[in-house]
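Design job #97: recover the sequence.
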């Protein structure tokens, strides 16, 4: 695949602050300044019952399928250290993790995207077999954070070399000792 062709995925859109109507915008900017804000807003409207679940799912799916397409069509470096990115066990919120996977694939890292609801035992099996350098899991709610803590404890028991483990949580999740 021509790596140049992925740059076409850097979308051309009109942003409120853009100096010209069709300023060139990188995927990263679209994700962090437009899509995340839009999803946050959708979440607020949903919480206030001003938007139906169906509309929330519809909007989210448009964003998710578009990001998945960009991710799938971005060439993955099949060499060098491996990075696993996914969601905590039973965690369905995947867009933050998917964005991170996309950003890192775009800078040339070897990314394995595991998606929603990663199952802990098969994750540990893959960690043992493929020895990723980093494992990143995303969690949105308190029970899921506990699940991720379990994964971290299991990873800490593995023989060396162990991966760096990273947990990402939304600010609304408070972690207590
Ligand atoms: C889309 C969405 C869904 C979709 C998810 C679809 C999908 N395939 O991902 C669906 C419909 C499945 C869903 C379901 C639910 N949802 Co929901 N959902 C959202 C929504 C609207 C957007 C989330 C999102 O994608 N944001 C975009 C990403 C890019 O932003 P972000 O998550 O903040 O991520 C940033 C950082 O956290 C970080 N990051 C995120 N992940 C990662 C990963 C790594 C490794 C790193 C380094 C960084 C990182 O980087 C991002 C960019 O800065 C939010 C609203 C909101 N405020 O976010 C609610 C929200 C998260 N949902 C919520 C709830 C309550 C639910 C449900 C429990 C509702 C229900 N009663 O059924 C269920 C979950 C059921 C379950 N089994 O757990 C609440 C959570 C409140 C809480 N923390 O306790 C929110 C906040 C809505 C609200 N206002 O109350 N949801």
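Job complete. Output follows.
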């Amino acid at each position: 695949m021509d790596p140049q062709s992925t740059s076409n995925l850097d979308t051309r859109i009109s942003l409120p602050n853009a100096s010209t109507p069709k300023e060139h915008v990188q995927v990263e900017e679209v994700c962090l300044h437009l899509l995340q804000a839009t999803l946050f807003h959708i979440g607020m409207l949903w919480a206030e019952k001003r938007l139906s679940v169906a509309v929330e799912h519809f909007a989210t799916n448009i964003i998710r399928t578009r990001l998945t397409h960009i991710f799938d069509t971005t060439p993955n470096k099949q060499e060098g250290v491996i990075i696993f990115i996914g969601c905590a066990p039973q965690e369905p919120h995947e867009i933050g993790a998917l964005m991170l996977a996309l950003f890192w694939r775009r800078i040339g890292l070897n990314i394995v995207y595991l998606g929603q609801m990663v199952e802990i035992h098969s994750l540990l099996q893959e960690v043992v077999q493929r020895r990723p350098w980093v494992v990143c899991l995303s969690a949105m709610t308190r029970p899921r954070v506990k699940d991720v803590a379990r994964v971290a404890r299991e990873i800490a028991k593995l023989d060396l070399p162990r991966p760096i483990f990273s947990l990402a949580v939304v600010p609304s999740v408070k972690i207590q000792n």
